[in-house]
């Protein structure tokens, strides 16, 4: 069955929708966590420590966190691979452009591919910056996420990369959430307005919530 | 009306094509778009040139033979077929671009005519019901709930013209295929092949080299019969259901 799903354009799109929804759920949790930065270093760092102890004593230290990381890596890889393969198929199916061409579809719809690439690059940079510290600007300190975040957003490029990526994320979710509902067959005429509203609200809240952090550092609210 | 036409001319499937410019005069606003092309062709024949090849049959908006991308829109600016489009939708002095359907699964045969036999093969893969032939069955023998009958009828309106493919930026045949799948899958007559129909028709659609759906919605905007975009959602649901059932067996 897995083979049939992966070989079909409709099946591959299902993989994209499911992995997209998994990432989306994670992002909702992630933005709530991030906003704790506005309550000071103690609360934020304590939250960072708690993430490693979730599930204890059933789970060992960091087990839950690693489980989430594995699920996320699988989701990102599945999403990006199916996006790449489906996009190649789409481009091959329409090789000739119309001489008389018009701008088509909404901005969010047209930017799914490039926006997705921006998000993919951002995810790599983001992990290297704040998880491993490899490309971090200040002296990266394990266990001191508050200071690490302040360091990142004290550089102009840190702010630019982050804010551009979050705007791309908002557009991606705006079309993506509603699309996933259609792909998974749960959309309907009666639910269409509600789905579009939820897509817009999610996109807006996530983008605003994530961008609040660099803006907080830039304005000195977080330091 | 006096018009400038820029028309895609291509000798045959293998030849390079290009846009050629023609002038037509004395076009009545009451003419259909195809009648306007008839005028152009008469003019071309009189001057010893090759007439423009284009598909048409019923000229009543019911057969699905006519095509043409007019000024970038499949079937032109109105929500109807090209044969039912009238010249009153244009203004005197307009320049009109006329191109064939564009998709790698619909190769150009000549000028504005494309090969749409890929659609026939999608239908052959499952767009039918198996039923004994003979006299029409008694109408009350198989009751169909009103809502299902309406749903089936809405999708049965698809005339297989291919405007959805032409309008789709991915050259996808999802709207056509979903119209056919939904039409039969909702009815008791279509129930015996409910799962194999959607699986086989989608597989054939992929095999023909059509693209995938990115929910751009251009197909439903172009469709002369108003097949809704949500039709694709319903087919996805049928496909997932059939795949789950196949997995259990
Ligand atoms: C690795 C980076 C990413 C790439 C390359 C990527 C690319 C894409 C592409 C090409 C599509 C299809 C667009 C279309 O149908 O027009 C898509 C859909 C989608 N993406 Fe992403 N994306 C990425 C990251 C994300 C993230 C972080 C999320 C989490 C919110 C997400 C959620 C979605 C959803 C929900 C869909 C809709 C699936 C569907 O159409 O059924 N994507 N993505
Ligand atoms: S769905 Fe509409 S546009 Fe597509 S083939 Fe059927 S009638 Fe034509
Ligand atoms: S010629 Fe039959 S639908 Fe246009």
From TrEMBL, chain A:
| Keyword Membrane attributed | yes
Q: Where are the transmembrane segments?
A: 21-39, 66-86, 107-128, 156-177, 198-222
Segment forming the signal sequence = none
Is Transmembrane one of the keywords? Answer: yes
Source organism, top-level taxon:
Bacteria
For this protein, the record's InterPro entries field holds: Cytochrome_b-558 (IPR011138), SQR/QFR_C/D (IPR034804)
Q: Which UniProt keywords apply?
A: Membrane, Transmembrane, Transmembrane helix
Listed SUPFAM superfamilies = Fumarate reductase respiratory complex transmembrane subunits (SSF81343)
Query: Which CDD domains does its entry note?
Result: SQR_TypeB_2_TM
What is the name of the protein in this document?
A: Succinate dehydrogenase
From TrEMBL, chain B:
- Give the record's keywords alphabetically: Iron, Iron-sulfur, Metal-binding
- Domain named 4Fe-4S ferredoxin-type: which ranges? 149-178
Q: Has keyword Signal?
A: no
What InterPro entries would the database entry show? 2Fe-2S_ferredoxin-like_sf, 2Fe-2S_ferredoxin-type, 2Fe2S_fd_BS, 4Fe4S_Fe-S-bd, 4Fe4S_Fe_S_CS, Beta-grasp_dom_sf, Helical_ferredxn, SDH/FRD_Iron-Sulfur
| Signal peptide range in chain numbering | none
Give a Pfam family name: Fer2_3
Q: Which residue range or ranges hold the 2Fe-2S ferredoxin-type domain? A: 1-102
* NCBIfam families per UniProt: PRK07570.1
Q: Per its record, how is this protein called by name?
A: Succinate dehydrogenase/fumarate reductase iron-sulfur subunit
Naturally occurring in which organism (per UniProt): Streptomyces achromogenes
């Amino acid at each position: 069955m897995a083979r049939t799903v992966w070989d079909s354009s409709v099946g591959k799109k299902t993989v994209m929708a499911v992995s997209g929804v998994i990432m989306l759920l994670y992002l909702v949790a992630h933005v709530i966590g991030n906003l704790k930065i506005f309550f000071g270093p103690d609360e934020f760092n304590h939250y960072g420590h708690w993430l490693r102890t979730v599930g204890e004593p059933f789970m060992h230290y960091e087990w839950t966190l690693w489980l989430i990381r594995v699920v996320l890596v699988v989701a990102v890889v599945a999403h990006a691979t199916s996006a790449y393969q489906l996009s190649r198929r789409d481009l091959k199916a329409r090789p000739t452009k119309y001489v008389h061409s018009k701008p088509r579809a909404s901005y969010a719809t047209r930017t799914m591919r490039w926006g997705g690439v921006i998000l993919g690059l951002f995810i790599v940079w983001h992990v290297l910056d704040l998880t491993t510290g490899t490309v971090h600007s200040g002296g990266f300190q394990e266990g001191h996420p508050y200071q690490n975040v302040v360091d990142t957003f004290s550089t102009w490029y840190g702010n630019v990369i982050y804010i551009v990526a979050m705007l791309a994320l908002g557009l991606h979710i705006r079309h993506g959430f509603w699309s996933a509902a259609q792909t998974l067959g749960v959309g309907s005429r009666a639910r269409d307005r509600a789905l579009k509203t939820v897509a817009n609200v999610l996109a807006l809240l996530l983008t605003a919530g994530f961008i609040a952090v660099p803006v907080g550092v830039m304005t000195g609210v977080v330091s | 009306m006096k018009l400038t036409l820029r028309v895609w001319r291509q000798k045959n499937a293998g030849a390079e094509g290009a846009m050629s410019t023609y002038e037509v005069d004395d076009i009545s606003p009451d003419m259909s778009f195809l009648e306007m092309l008839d005028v152009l062709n008469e003019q071309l024949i009189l001057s010893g040139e090759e007439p423009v090849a284009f598909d048409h049959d019923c000229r009543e908006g019911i057969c699905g033979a006519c095509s043409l991308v007019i000024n970038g829109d499949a079937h032109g600016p109105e929500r109807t077929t090209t044969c039912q489009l009238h010249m009153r939708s244009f203004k005197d002095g307009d320049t009109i671009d006329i191109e064939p359907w564009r998709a790698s699964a619909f190769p150009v045969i000549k000028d504005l005519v494309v090969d749409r036999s890929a659609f026939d093969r999608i239908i052959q893969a499952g767009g039918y019901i198996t039923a004994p032939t003979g006299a029409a069955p008694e109408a009350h023998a198989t009751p169909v709930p009103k809502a299902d009958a309406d749903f089936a009828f809405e999708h049965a309106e698809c005339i297989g013209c291919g405007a959805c493919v032409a309008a789709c930026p991915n050259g996808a045949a999802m709207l056509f295929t979903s119209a056919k799948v939904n039409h039969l899958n909702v009815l008791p007559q279509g129930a015996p092949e409910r799962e194999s129909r959607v699986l086989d028709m989608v597989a054939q659609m992929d095999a023909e080299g059509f693209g995938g759906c990115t929910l751009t919605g251009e197909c439903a905007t172009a469709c002369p019969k108003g097949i809704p975009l949500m039709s694709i959602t319903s087919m996805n649901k049928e496909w997932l259901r059939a795949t789950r059932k196949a997995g259990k067996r």
